[in-house]
Each structure stands twice: as structure tokens, then as C-alpha cells.
Automatic annotation (TrEMBL), chains A, B:
Transmembrane segments: none
GO biological processes: prolyl-tRNA aminoacylation
Complex and partners: Homodimer.
NCBIfam families: proS_fam_I
HAMAP family: Pro_tRNA_synth_type3
Catalytic activity: tRNA(Pro) + L-proline + ATP = L-prolyl-tRNA(Pro) + AMP + diphosphate
Role of this protein: Catalyzes the attachment of proline to tRNA(Pro) in a two-step reaction: proline is first activated by ATP to form Pro-AMP and then transferred to the acceptor end of tRNA(Pro).
Top-tier EC class: ligase
Gene3D superfamilies: Anticodon-binding domain, Bira Bifunctional Protein, Domain 2, C-terminal domain of ProRS
Keyword Metal-binding: no
Protein name: Proline--tRNA ligase
Organism lineage string: Bacteria, Bacillati, Bacillota, Clostridia, Eubacteriales
Length: 479, 479
């Protein structure tokens, strides 16, 4: 009976059958999002929003601990302001939503619904910055941005997404560069430690970097299907924007200078990364740090004397050290199991009449389905230990998947064969020419993911053109 | 010398001279906001944003404690969706910003930048709600909204403001009504307990209620100048919107029903309320609960042996129980005093060489300037006690101002005289007719603030028309 119930709850496509459909099934069935009636716009439902809030809380604390302050910039940006930096506007113009009417009046100038806010921060700084004493200014904002994408998928690419955008200005280029690295490392730490997602840190090629940036650094995660997901980026702008927007300060030498600038962002895309890194055919699997419910307590034979009461008592105790939910609804236990598996709750606690007699309960891990009997007196150590073990295993499995799907190639024939054999990272040397990067895309369907900080020497030449190699690149198929 | 420095920092208009200018001076000089280059749009600077975040944190915890869940709805709303409920669209159409272009394409249908989200929530519920078992759905979102206001003032009325909008649906009208009251009480508690702002709770007249609502409840605060500020509202919609948007559920009787709906919101306007309730000619005065810095530590003669070290040590200790800032900059103490007074820091701790000898320090309250010498061994009790005393006094002073400026009238002559003599609340009986409400506005310049829950019987008739009175109304001049 539990089995039938299970099917009833789930009915999602398997990963094997259709990974893309499996993904969108989870987004909907785990009640993370709903498709709104505005084309390409999603609704974050309570469970999806709760996951995002846990990521936010974690990130926000880290940002503040390193001296960043939150601000709020206008949601609308005048076209003339957007146009001051040529590369940025060229990069974003095709995907901007334009406000042209205010009430019943046609606006004199179109206003863009913000696609990103470098321009607004620069405009603000051009008025408020005076002296080197006020530097650095390290700002962040949590907001949504709008980009008019043609094809959309929940969390991965939608016309609106929620994110943080950090924007900082510094007295020296070195300080700005250090900030860029610090924030990239912050992102990598959150991914690896809290989301249990291993990432490759590296620099984007010029073709793949942010419009207007001097350098873009990235963390790249690999999904279960071998595709790459750019999961966070950190940009160094030099003084390009501060010159374009006339941001100046009086330096220690009493002369006017332009500050050096960075920006960096992660978004609700991270929720997509969690789904596709850890999920299975029964649904989502959440790393404990961002699980709105870390432990679900399910009473078995709840009508038997003492069971409901004990389940409630345990939930109350557990709430002191973990996010816990008592499922005392009148659904069958099997139905509850499936429901909470779909929602990726890391740990299930079952307690029935026999357990009561033995002063024990059953803990079941979401990832392994491993069941352990635990004395009720030891729960307070057993639960955190199980959560930590799950986190560690999620990370190790994701890392193993990445290692299994990372291959090195020194010739184009090898590249072609590997790309045909499976999806993953292909490492090659590269001469640095755009032509070879384009050829890799056109002939093999691979884009450069990054030039990893951890370089290897695979050969002396670019496999594409045979010219001397400058760097090693990770290539892949990206979301 | 301290005096000169003081003037240098401040240079703000006095309340006496020009209250409106005093207000905007504080907004800018305390670095709460900056005027953006988008007309009518402000920037929340770090200090202003930090105050808003403390209000948010407080509110959000209260919402969650009563079973509300956060969600995120699209920022853009199709015109056709906005138009389904006639009163709402009529109320908001004149002040909507319209997106008409996506990239380089003209949109088939205009999209409104959300002015409020009742329509989106209803649209969502029309798809996801099925059974009474899923009710109530108690949602909230933190976001910004855009309303194309003609005249704007920071926090009080701007084209974009940040707020929370709660939206709930319930099985019965009684439950929805109870929710409306609960949330109004929640707002009143935050205002009175945390912001030290006394409020009058009541119901809006039909003229003043929210477009489309069956009933609007409000908390009204009185500013130092006697003007009223609507500080939070809670609306009961009955099943009007759920009928318009076809939101239905299968009830306990197995029949289709429309749920009963509420919405409620507070905004960054509360920051304006804090400024105008507590501030003085030296700047802002922040209630401790929402002060980003509760205690500023200022070393006196910091170059003398041991002073800097002791100041740092104290700040470190205080950080365990209060939000503290050590001002170890090389500005003169007088300059620091003025700066932190402008920013409304509730408590200043001074420590100099003589204090060191006596194992004491000086605590100075922002509101009274009262100085007390406190033994360093007693700081941990003295600081929280001083903060609480300040909070209580802020509240009492605001209450005294309101009581001083609240007058009863039974004839139109009395109303006219009182309105001429000063700004405040004028209480009168009212027949309930729109004509009398309009007359009060046109002839005396007063709008109805609310029909307070705490009613008094001042006379039997409406002073305006002489017909039998139905209720007592607070009239005033509103921001």
C-alpha cells in the first residue's frame, strides 16, 4: 500500500529517461516553483523561497563579516545612464525590459528594469565619493533582476531571477583584485561546505567574460548529467566604469583619481545546482545547511498509546538543535515518506509502539535510505552526526561524478571522441585565440568553462591549431 | 571647539524653522538615503538599509511565528490580470509604470511594474488551491513596488519603496477577519514596543480604504509636528478578489467555494515615522531595537597611555550584548559626538585617562544628553538599562505629544478653531456620509484618519450635518 501511495505522490520522470524533464518535474512536484502566467517568469513557492532564504542568510553573514554593507538601488535605470559604458550596454541591450509609460504619460526617456546595477552604483558613487579616506566602499544588494531571455527554465534561466549583486570600489587595483578573489573564494566555500557542491575555480576567457569586465572569475559546478553550471562569478573592472561614470576621489597625493571596481553575484540558480547535483529519482536531496526541514518526525501506528505524544515530545526536543517538522497529518506513513523524500528532507525519524518499548527510534537517511536504530537518549548526538555524514557523502559523490567525467585530450580527434562518448569536462591546452575557441564550439559543441587556477601541463601546443599553448582550459556543455 | 565642530557636521535646519526641511536634511545628513538620478527614486544607503533590515528581521520573525511563509512573485503583472478586479485597477492605474518593450520587441500586452500584488497572488492561488485542507495559505513577500507619484519625499512617498505585502486566504470569513486583526496588532506591537511609536488603531472610512477592499484597518502615528502618518494597513477583501480571479476550493461539504482573503503591509515609511517621531535639531534619535549601532565608544585623549586599549577592550565586551561601534578614527571627540548624534546612536560611552584611574566611564543618552558615571564592572547591566530607559522615554514623549495635540469637537466652529490653532487629531462624531467627510476636507483641510477601535461618545450628532452620529472619527492632516 505504501508503494502505491508512493507512486501517487511522485510520478516523476526518471533521470535516465529524460534528465531535463526529471529536473522540471522536481521543481514543480517538490513545490519549489510554479510557472506564473507571465511568460518566462516563475513564482518562488514557500519551500523554494525557504531554501533561497537559507542560502541568503549564510551568504549575507559572510559578506558582513568581511565588511560589506547592504544598500538598495532603484529598480529602474535611465537608458542614458545604461549607455555610458559601451560594452555593458551592448551586452545587455538585447535582453532589457523597457518602461516607457508612467501612469498615462509617455516618459521622455525609457527606463530599463534593472538587468544588473553596475551603472547605478557608479552613478551613486560619482556623487558621494570624495576622499581616499572613504574607500573602500563595499556594497551589496539582494534583489531581483530582469533579462528578456528567449528560452527559460526554472532557476537556471528565467526572465526574472533573485540574486545578490556585490559592488565595490577601492583605492588601488591590487585591493580590487584581492576583493574579486576573496568573494570568489567565499562563493566556493558556500558551495563546497554548505551546498556540498564541489566547484572548479578559474578565469573566464574573453569570449565568456561579463560585458565590460576586465576579468571574470567563476566557480563551475558539474551536474549529475555531466553538464556544467556556472554557479557564481566575480568581476574585476579596473577603472573602466569609474572613468565612464566619472567616479573620482582625492588621493593621498591630493590629486583626483578613479577608483578600481569589482562586482560579484550568485543567484537562485544555486537552487538549480542543488537539485541537479544531489537529486535522485525519488526527488530532491537537500544538503542540511539549506534544508528548511532537516528532520521529519513520522509516528508509526500513531493511534497506539503514547506514540503521538512521544513523537511530539521528540520533535520539540530536536527543535533545539535542528530544523524539525512533526508530520502528524492523517496520511499513511508510506505517503508521508514519499512526500518528504520528494522534498529532500535529509533525515527521517520514525517512531512506533515497538520503538517506544525499547526507548529507541529509527533514523533514515534520504540519500542512502540507510536505517539505524538509535536510543532516544543519544538523539542529540546522532542527528547532527547523521546530517554531517550525509553532507560529506553528498559532496564525495558529486566529486566522484566530476572526476569520472573529467578527461584530458591533446588532439582534436581525442576531443571529438571524448565528446561523443559522454558529457563532462574535457581538459585541453589552448593557444588563447578566439578562433580556436569558436572552432571548439562549432565543431564539437563545447564552450570554454574556465581557465582553472589549478593548471596542468598536458602538452605544449593547442590541439586546435598546433600553435604554442598558453593555458589549460576546461571545456564542456553548459546550462 | 567641540561646538564649532558640531556646527560643521550638522548645519541642518531646525524643526522650528522648517519641519519639512529638517526632515529631508536628516534623511541626507544621517546618510539614510541619497536622491538617485532617476526622478522620484531614492537609494537606501548602508545606514538607512541597516535600519530597514532590523525592522524586517523583527517583523519577519513575528510573521513566521504565526505561521506565515515567504514567497516571491513576479515583478511584472500583465495588464489583463490587473484589470480583472475593477476597483483595484481604477485605484492604481494612474500610477502604474508600464513595460512595453522586451529587448527590441514590442510586447503584445503591457506589463505593469508591480504596484501591489493581490492580482498575482490570486492568479497563483487559482491554479494551486484545491481543497479546504490546504487552507489557510498565509503568504508574505519582501520586495519593492513602484507607484508613479507626482510629488515625492524620502521614505514617505517615493516612486519606489520597499515593503512587505502579506496575502492570505482562508476557509471562512471569520478566520480572514481574525487574520486582518492579528496582523494589525502585530504592526501596532512592533511600532509601540520596538519603534517606541504610539499608534491609534482603527478602521478607515470607505473613502480612505484600499482600492477593492471591503475593510481597511490602519495604525496611525502622530509626528512631532502634529501631522498624521498612516504607518501600516491591513485589508479584508471578503471573497471579492477570489471571485474575480476564480480562486476556488472543494469545501468540507464537497462543494466548490471561494476563499476569504486579506492583505497587509508596512514599508520603509516606518523609517520616516521614526525620524519624525523622535528626531531633534541635532539629528536622528533611534529606538534601540532598530539602531544599527546602539552604543558608540569614543576614547577621550586617546593618545594617553591605556585609553585606546581600554576603549577597544570595552567595545569588544559590549559586543556580546549590544551592537557597538568603536570610533577610533582620528577625528576630534566633539566632531565624533556630533556625527553619532546626527546618526541617532542611542548611547555614547566616553572613556578618558581620568576614567581609567577610577575604573569608570561616562554614558551619555542621545535623547536627554544625561551623563552618568558608571563603574566598568557594572556596564553589562547599565547599558541595557539605559537603552531600555531611553526606549521608554521616547515612547512616553511621543505619547505626550499626541495627547497634547488631540482635541475633541462637537461643532464645526470648534473644528475650525482647533484646526486653526494647531495641527493634531480632532475627534468628532460622524454620520457616516461621504458628503460630510468631503466637507471636512474642503472647508477645514482635514482628512479622516480612522474610526478608532476605542470609541468615545462625544455627542449624539454629526457636527457637519446634524444628523445622528454613527461613529467617532479622528481627523487630521496627513503625510
Amino acid at each position: 500500500m505504501a508503494k502505491d501511495n508512493k507512486k501517487l505522490v511522485q510520478a516523476i520522470t526518471s533521470q535516465e529517461e529524460n534528465f531535463a524533464q526529471w529536473y522540471t518535474d522536481i521543481c514543480v512536484k517538490a513545490e519549489l516553483v510554479e510557472y506564473s502566467s507571465v511568460k518566462g517568469f516563475i513564482i518562488l513557492r514557500p519551500y523554494g523561497q525557504a531554501i533561497w532564504e537559507l542560502i541568503q542568510k549564510d551568504m549575507d553573514a559572510r559578506f558582513k563579516a568581511t565588511g560589506h554593507e547592504n544598500v538598495a538601488m532603484p529598480v529602474l535605470i535611465p537608458e542614458s545612464l545604461l549607455q555610458k559604458e559601451g560594452e555593458l550596454v551592448n551586452g545587455f541591450a538585447p535582453e532589457v525590459a523597457w518602461v516607457t509609460m508612467g501612469g498615462s504619460d509617455k516618459l521622455e526617456e525609457r527606463l530599463a528594469v534593472r538587468p544588473t546595477s553596475e551603472t547605478m552604483f557608479c552613478d551613486h558613487w560619482s556623487r558621494v565619493l570624495h576622499s581616499y579616506r572613504e574607500l573602500p566602499m563595499k556594497y551589496n544588494q539582494w534583489c531581483s533582476v530582469v533579462r528578456w531571455e528567449k528560452t527559460t527554465r526554472p532557476f537556471l534561466r528565467s526572465r526574472e531571477f533573485w540574486w545578490q549583486e556585490g559592488h565595490t570600489i577601492h583605492e588601488t587595483a591590487a585591493e580590487a583584485e584581492a576583493e574579486t578573489q576573496q568573494q570568489l573564494n567565499c562563493y566556493a566555500d558556500v558551495c563546497e561546505q554548505d551546498l556540498a557542491i564541489p566547484v572548479v575555480k578559474g578565469r573566464k576567457t574573453d569570449k565568456e567574460k561579463f560585458a565590460g569586465a576586465e576579468a571574470t572569475y567563476t566557480i563551475e559546478a558539474m551536474m549529475k548529467d555531466g553538464k556544467a553550471l556556472q554557479s557564481g562569478t566575480s568581476h574585476y573592472f579596473g577603472d573602466k566604469f569609474s572613468k565612464a561614470y566619472d567616479v573620482t576621489f582625492t588621493g593621498r597625493d591630493n590629486q583626483l583619481h578613479h577608483p578600481f571596481q569589482t562586482s560579484w553575484g550568485v543567484s537562485t540558480r544555486l537552487v538549480g545546482a542543488i537539485i541537479m547535483t544531489h537529486g535522485d529519482d525519488d526527488g530532491l536531496i537537500l544538503p542540511p545547511a539549506v534544508a528548511p526541514i532537516q528532520v521529519v518526525v513520522v509516528p508509526i501506528a500513531a493511534h497506539k498509546p503514547g506514540v503521538s505524544e512521544k513523537a511530539a515530545e521528540l520533535a520539540e526536543k530536536i527543535s533545539k538543535y535542528a530544523r524539525v517538522k512533526l508530520d502528524d497529518s492523517d496520511n499513511a506513513p508510506g505517503w508521508k515518506f514519499s512526500q518528504w523524500e520528494m522534498k529532500g528532507v535529509p533525515l527521517r525519524l520514525e517512531i512506533g509502539p515497538k520503538d517506544l518499548e525499547k526507548n529507541q527510534c529509527v533514523l533514515v537517511r534520504r540519500d542512502t535510505r540507510e536505517k539505524v536504530f538509535v536510543s532516544l537518549d543519544e538523539l542529540e548526538t546522532a542527528i547532527p552526526a547523521q546530517l554531517e555524514a550525509l553532507r560529506k557523502d553528498l559532496y564525495e559523490r558529486a566529486l566522484a561524478n566530476r572526476e569520472k567525467r573529467t578527461w584530458a585530450a591533446t588532439t582534436m580527434d581525442e576531443v571529438r571522441e571524448l565528446a561523443k562518448a559522454g558529457t563532462g569536462y574535457i581538459k585541453t591546452m589552448w593557444c588563447g585565440d578566439l578562433a580556436c575557441e569558436m572552432k571548439m564550439k562549432e565543431e564539437v559543441g563545447l564552450s570554454s568553462r574556465c581557465m582553472p587556477f589549478e593548471q596542468e601541463h598536458l602538452s605544449d601546443v593547442c590541439p586546435c591549431c598546433g600553435k604554442p599553448a598558453k593555458t589549460m582550459v576546461y571545456w564542456g556543455v553548459a546550462y
